[in-house]
C-alpha cells in the first residue's frame, strides 16, 4: 500500500491577488466628443457673428440699465409678496368644507392658470374700457390715471402668481399628517391656531423649494411688463438699442443682468431650503463653500494618506 500524501492546509496557500479590470465606457467618450464639438461650433459661430462684443461692458452699468434692473427686482418682489399672500388664502379656501369658498377658489385658479400672463397684463392695462371711473366712495378718479404701468404689472403678475402659489401651498398643507390636526384640536386649538402654529410650519419644508423656483421665474416673467410700458430691464435695453443701434448687444447686457439676479436668489433659496431641511435630515450635506474649503485643505496638504494594511 502506498502511504497517503500529507495534504497542505488550504489556509497556508496565499490567495491570488484579484486584478480588477475596469469596464470601458466607449459611449461616454463618444458622447463627450460630440458635446465638445457642438460647443466649439457654437463658440465659433458666435465669434464670427456681426456682434460688437466690446460695447457690452460699456453698457453693463449704464444708468438706464441699472434703473431697469432695479425696477425688475422691485416689481418681482412686490408681485411675489402679493402672490404668496393671496395664494395662502386661496389654498385655505380650496381646502375648506364650505362649497362656496371652495368653488370660488377653484374657479380663480382655473381662470388665471388657463390664460397667458401677457393677455392678463393687457386686460388690466385696458381695464378703463370696462370701468372708466374708479369710485370707491372715499376716492374717485379716472381709471386711466389709476392704472399706471407699475400697478398694471403688479396686478397682472401678482394675481397670476397667486393661482400657482395656491396649489403649492395646498400641496404643502396636505403633506402634513392628519394626526397633527387631530392632536391640535384635542389640545383645544382652533382651526386658525392649528393652521398657523402646527400645519404651516411643518408644510414649509414642502412649500419653500417650489416657491423659490416661482420667484426666480417671476424675475424673468416680469419682462412681459414691457408690453404695458413698464420701464423694466428689457424696456430700458430696447430704448438704448434704438439710439445706439446695438440691438443684440443690449440683449446680451439684459441676459447678464438676469443671470446675475437669478444666481443671487438661487443661492438664497439653497440656504433657506437647507434651514427647513434640518427637521427631516439628521446629517445635512456640506454646502458648496464647505466642500470648496475641504478640497482646498486636501490639495494644500502634502502628506500622503495612510494606506490600510
Describe it:
The protein is mostly helical and 309 residues long. Strand 1 and strand 2 form a beta hairpin. It has a two-stranded antiparallel ribbon with strand order 1-2. The longest helix is centred in the first third of the chain and has 33 residues. Helices cover 68% and strands 2% of the residues.
Rg, nearest Å? 30 Å
Q: What about the largest sheet? A: 2 strands, antiparallel
What is the number of E strands? 2
In helices, the fraction of residues equals 55-70%
Fraction in beta strands: under 5%
Structural class: mainly alpha
User: Cα distance, first to last residue?
Assistant: 48 Å
Summary?
68% of the residues lie in helices and 2% in strands. It has helices spanning 26-47, 56-60, 63-95, 99-114, 117-125, 143-146, 149-174, 178-186, 191-221, 233-244, 247-276, 288-299, and strands spanning 133-135, 140-142. The mean pLDDT is 85.
Task: Name its key features.
309 residues, mainly alpha, two-stranded antiparallel sheet
Please render the helix and strand layout as text:
Layout (H helix, E strand, L loop, with lengths): L25 H22 L8 H5 L2 H33 L3 H16 L2 H9 L7 E3 L4 E3 H4 L2 H26 L3 H9 L4 H31 L11 H12 L2 H30 L11 H12 L10
Antiparallel strand pairs: 1-2
Helix pairs in contact: 3-4, 3-7, 3-9, 3-10, 4-7, 5-7, 7-9, 8-9, 9-11, 10-11
